[in-house]
Amino acid sequence: MVLCVTPTVLIALIPELVMETVYGEAYVGGGVLVILCLAMKLFGLASLFMVFGLATDDDLLIAIIAFFAVAEVALMSLYNQTIE
């Protein structure tokens, strides 16, 4: 969880510096990095919960994965005009 939350907080606090450092000045701005980072964090957490649910044979796994899938699509659709 620490490996997932720490970069997300860093990117949320200073997205311009992260974008400029990683991709250069041409890609600074737009706010897409924060939305993408949150969506990918949910994807990673869904994978983590999936492995945990499979290991413990828990039925709550299905609800957790469904929640993360819906939240991920919702976050990605904030930036894009269509889901495609």
Strand-residue proportion: under 5%
**Mean of residue pLDDT?**
76
Based on helices, strands and strand pairing, what is the structural class? mainly alpha
Which series of helices and strands comes N to C? HHHH
Share in helix: over 70%
Oligomer state of the chains in this structure: single chain
Low-pLDDT runs: none
**Tally the helices: what do you get?**
4
Characterize the structure shown.
- The chain has 4 helices and no strands.
- It is about 80% helix and about 0% strand.
- The chain has one domain (about 1-80).
- The model has no long low-confidence stretch (mean pLDDT about 75).
- α1 packs across α2 (about 15-25), α1 (about 1-15) runs antiparallel to α3 and α3 packs antiparallel against α4 (about 60-80).
Short summary:
The chain has helices spanning 2-13, 15-23, 32-56, 60-79.
Reconstruct the topology from this structure:
Blueprint: H1 2-13, H2 15-23, H3 32-56, H4 60-79
Helix pairs in contact: 1-2, 1-3, 3-4
Provide keyphrases for this structure.
single chain, 84 residues, mainly alpha, 4 helices, 79% helix, elongated
